[in-house]
Design goal:
The structure is a single chain. The relative contact order is 0.15. Helix content is 65%, strand content 0%. The longest helix has 27 residues. With 196 residues, it is mainly α. It is globular. It binds zinc ion (2 copies).
Length: 196
Amino acid sequence: MRGRLLIPFCFYTPLAIALGSAAALAGRQGWSEALLFAAAGLMSWSALEYALHRFVFHHESRSQAVRELVWSAHLSHHDAPKALDRLVASLELSIPIATAYWLLAWAATGSWSAACWLFVGLTMGYFCYEWLHFQAHHGRPRSRLLRYLRRYHLLHHYGSEGRRYGVTSPLLDLACGTFERAGRERTPERELPQSR
Ligand SMILES: [Zn+2]
Ligand SMILES: [Zn+2]
């Protein structure tokens, strides 16, 4: 079961290496420009994570087909937050999003190789997300930052689904009015590691 958690890493690592190598061989960007694009791609992950989570994965549609799509994409994870088979995004979900991102990045920059560097950064952001999300539900983080992010995400699951959409950072929640301080809310007992 845990093997399926690695599927996104096994798929996107060689893809990002291939795209980065193709862009490097094409030589259209110098290393500093390539690094800037990759950094922009990494930061764009936060925006994509927030926008998808807030506006797509919690969208309440009248259409049964859309509701089923949203359920399999995200709400099934809310139904069983610790279920390993619902924890990481499926390739069926992420590949169309990744393809649309790369095409939009190409259209926006006018350069396929710049789009590749952006994609490399985005992939790093996505891997951070999957790792932090796993830590939130199954980890025993020791650092304050990881414990904070863990609690922040668990409170999104239990009691505040209309808020706290950020997983890798609460910054966009702060900027977009969906932040909520943790206050005295307790991390739900059923999510604590010893309950596994
Ligand atoms: Zn959610
Ligand atoms: Zn979760």
